[in-house]
Design goal:
alpha/beta; 11 helices; globular
Length: about 290
């Protein structure tokens, strides 16, 4: 291999990265002037899994107001109070407007742990109390349109990215809240869109920005498939967020500078090679 080829490789990689990052920005014009909540299970979820999404949605040009609701303070190792502060610091790095836009619960209902199951109905109750729309007790076809104080809810999908039961519970709790919100409201559109982060194979998890092209191709093929189905009024089903190099470093800093208590040796591998530090693809879920 000659010197020109060696020099061309990093240039090609950088060009491909910038191209996919810029191209992905055209996939989310829908997220403009929206009230958005990111629902997570533990402090550091927002940085390790959702930093591309947060960095895109908190951009001042979008006019979005983004909040984070974290259902536990990650007290499994007795560091709950420290991790709460770390989450607030991370949220600032990732573009949230104020520390008041971060809410962390410390409840016996939501204990951090791989062996702990969170009750779906309790998650739904928390969402109802936070954003309106308690679970319906009876159907009322003459009821007013359902309302909520957010427009978009973002969380994990049914596989939870890492198969963590706390992550998976958030998906089911979010669905339960919105299904309850719409119970007895036939004919009305759900006031809150639910978008979930797509879980991928172990191989794709560790190829960083290189997975962006794979995700784009799968999204393109999915778009062709969806175009053959009857059209509905729900709008675009998928959104792709790809961080450029500056944003990638910003996401890393949210971990290294804010979540210092969590920076064990294996997390250096995650923030260096993990695709979720660079690529987020969200899928809009149907409600009802």
């Amino acid at each position: 291999m000659d010197i020109c080829t060696i020099l061309a490789i990093p240039i090609l990689i950088s060009t491909l990265w910038l191209f996919t990052a810029n191209l992905s920005r055209s996939s989310h014009p829908h997220f403009i002037n929206r009230r958005i909540c990111l629902l997570i299970a533990h402090p550091d979820d927002e940085a390790m899994f959702f930093s591309p999404t947060l960095l895109a949605l908190t951009n001042s040009e979008t006019g979005n107001h983004v909040k984070i609701l974290c259902l536990s303070n990650g007290n499994a190792d007795g560091l709950g109070q420290i991790r709460e502060k770390e989450l607030i610091a991370s949220a600032e790095v990732l573009g949230l407007r104020s520390q008041d836009d971060v809410l962390v619960l410390d409840s016996p209902d939501f204990i951090d742990g791989m062996d702990t199951k969170w009750a779906v109905e309790k998650i739904a109750d928390v969402l109802g109390q936070a954003f309106g729309g308690q679970l319906s007790k009876k159907k009322d076809p003459d009821a007013d349109a359902p309302t909520a104080t957010i427009d978009v809810l973002v969380t994990f999908d049914r596989s939870g990215i890492s198969s963590h039961p706390n992550h998976i519970a958030l998906y089911h709790g979010a669905k339960a809240w919105l299904n309850g919100l719409m119970d007895g409201k036939e004919g009305w559109r759900c006031p809150v869109e639910l978008h979930t982060l797509t879980s991928v194979s172990i191989l794709r998890k560790y190829i960083s920005f290189l997975d962006a092209s794979t995700t784009m191709l799968l999204g393109f093929l999915g778009g062709i498939r969806d175009s053959r189905r009857p059209k509905n009024s729900e709008g675009r089903k998928q959104a792709l967020f790809v961080s450029d190099m500056v944003q990638w470093r910003q996401g890393q800093k949210a971990m290294t500078n804010a979540h210092k208590s969590q920076m064990r040796w294996f997390r250096w591998g995650w923030i260096t090679f993990g695709r979720y530090m660079v690529v987020n693809d969200l899928k809009r879920q149907s409600i009802g």
